[in-house]
Amino acid sequence: MDREFLIDLFAGFGPVTIRRMFSGFGISADGINFALALRSGLYLRADEASFARFEEAGSKPFSYETRARTMTVRSYWQVPAHLFDDTDEFATWAKDAFAAAQRAALSKRPKKRAASLGANEPAPARGKRRPAAAKKTTTKTADKSKSNKTPKSAKTTGKAAAAARTRRGTTAPKASRTPSKRPR
């Protein structure tokens, strides 16, 4: 699948951003990824609300193989073959995939965010940071004998201290610089 084909395919959905990703492309709208175009096919984002629809169409979830096993990613499902011929129905499936991606993005947002904002302070735009609050200043007492600070520990630093810790067994010895003998 090339970029021009994807642009034509998603034309009924609306404007999309297509970026290189893995061995293919990531397709997003409004900064939210909702589709993957890889060597193995085109995949749309899915969630609990749309799993059954993909299963009924005979689609399978995205999977890849590692050295040890096959990993299945249920959040992306292969686009059914009949959708490549019907761009209007494909646009409907793409809109559903975008909605699933939006729901996933909302569920990942921190819950504490609304409570931490001030009453008159607007929320920062996505990806923007709020300016840091002014640091509080404290006054120090003139009488240091009444201070509750504990003295610094007698921890020593330097080569001699590291050697002493190694002798006591508190620091692991340095690993050898020879390459590992694991199979490739």
UniProtKB/TrEMBL annotation:
Origin superkingdom: Bacteria
Compositional bias of kind Low complexity: 150-175
TfoX N-terminal domain location: 8-101
Gene3D superfamilies: YgaC/TfoX-N like chaperone
Renumbered residue ranges of the record's region Disordered: 109-184
InterPro entries: TfoX-like, TfoX_N
Protein name: TfoX N-terminal domain-containing protein
